[in-house]
Please model this.
Amino acid sequence: MKISRKSAAVAAVAASALALSACAGGSGDGNSDGAGINDSESVNIAWNQPFYSYNGNSMTGNATANNVVLYLMKGGFNYYDEDLNLVQDESYGTYEKVSDDPLTIKYTYADTAGWSDDVAAGPADLLLEWAAQNGKFNNVEPILDDETGEVTNQAEVDAGVYFDAASPAVALITETPVIEDNSITMTYSKPFADWETAISPNLPAHVVGQRALGIEDATEASDAVVKAIQDNDTASLQKIAKVWSTDFNYAELPDDENLYLSSGAYVMTDFVKDQYVTLKANEKYEGDRKAGIDQVTIRYNGDPMGQVQALQNGEVDLINPQSTADILSAVNALDGVKVESATEGTYEHIDLQFTNGGPFDPATYGNDAEKAKKVRQAFLKTIPRQQIVDNLIKPLNPDAEIRNSYTQVPGSPAYDSIVAASGQSQYDQVDIEGAKALLAEAGVTSPVSVRLLFDPNNTRRVNQAQLITESAALAGFTVAPYQVQTDWGTDLSNATSFYDAALFGWQSTSTAVTESDANYRTAATNNFYGYSNPAVDALFDELQVETDTAEQTRILGEVEKHLVDDAFGVTIFQFPGVTAWNESKISGVVPLTIAPGIFYGYWDWTTGNAEASK
Model:
């Protein structure tokens, strides 16, 4: 998540981690190229948060806002189909398990895998990702000032090796992967149940090498990156890590085209800050999942009703806004619009800061961990979860209920068992008197100030924040909106000193049983809060090698009980989803319940007119 400390669904391949949840378009005269793509075809899609990083596997960039764009731009070894089966994309490459003891996986790149600058994709790209995600090369960690949020040891960070990433799964690959011709072989230190989604291609190694090491030739630059990793060349790795972590973060189209190369169906051609990003069919792409529509423009609008208005006005053709009863009624009233409503793979939750010097940090109370925990528990007792569900979610889904699991979707096979084990249901009802009693036991006098981070442009989140503020005030908490410095997604990982609680959604990016590891393990990719429990880390170690379903359920139940006992935060509800599109402009839309959601199946998209002419 960025050159601070950490951030917040899936790129072209599946990743074993959760991820954070104007007008245009034109037509020409219908010229068609040899790939069968009509260059007059275009579609406009509304999205709620702007793109800000091409590096979707970094702590800074691991957010749905980035990865839905990257899903269109990057190839990979596998992807999920509409039934959530993991499918190998052999036009990019293949992989096979060559040994169970030790677990050994061999990846082989296809001749058709390449970048849009005519450089072949290859093992160097995956080796670079291993080095970045593994954590073994990092020899320094940014330290943030509690008051300003600025990095206080920037000189040390600049002089050391710091990849802005941390993957518990990739950390299991302790030996340097072996490259042979167009293949790379990775050996795990112990069995790992979700090895198929453990690592994915990400950045072009040759571009990183060119920028970091000053080497112009692409092949030489790529080879230099490989050598630096194999030799553990600290001087070179320091430069490589800095480029990997920082150079691919941007909020508008960079001057250097190498910062937005494509290895997939689409390539970025325009990007206007906070307004839109435009992608065109990648003429260099030789894979199987070619662009169905020549041009895709993603237009940013954080106001759900504004998205509906844009759909009505013809400014956009496909929307997936955060839904309310008013939104559902509005889209259902539009003529010529197809509407689908279903539960999504995203859930709402509140997480609390443990190490930011705020009201939930033991350091605030002389390092008294029990006192800080009581303050956290008191705050969680004020969260009006049932009221939020009743007021904001049941109008869309009458069967909606509080989600009481950090790791399981309501109705899934393991859900009831894990909920029973965790005890999170103790927070189902607001308990103001119980909250007051806990504050009294802790010897903490009110008011207790809590800075709440959420998307200020998201109507539903604003409504939730208001309900939380009113309820918490009854127990002596003064909740104030955190003043966003850049955008809320970036601040989630970078400005951790400035907020005490975060209200947002996690979207599933895979079906991996270890997906939640990145959220709750000490210093893992999505753990922005300083939460650390050795027992939880040990349980995730156990889960990584467990293949028995009953045992997986037991382990996750124990993990969740620790999270509840530690007052990590609370889950609130599963997202009710509304997708709407103009059938005369786009056909073939099949929203996926996990990331990338509405962007899934772009290879089957057609313009409405093209569909009608069949």
Notes: The longest strand covers residues 337-352.
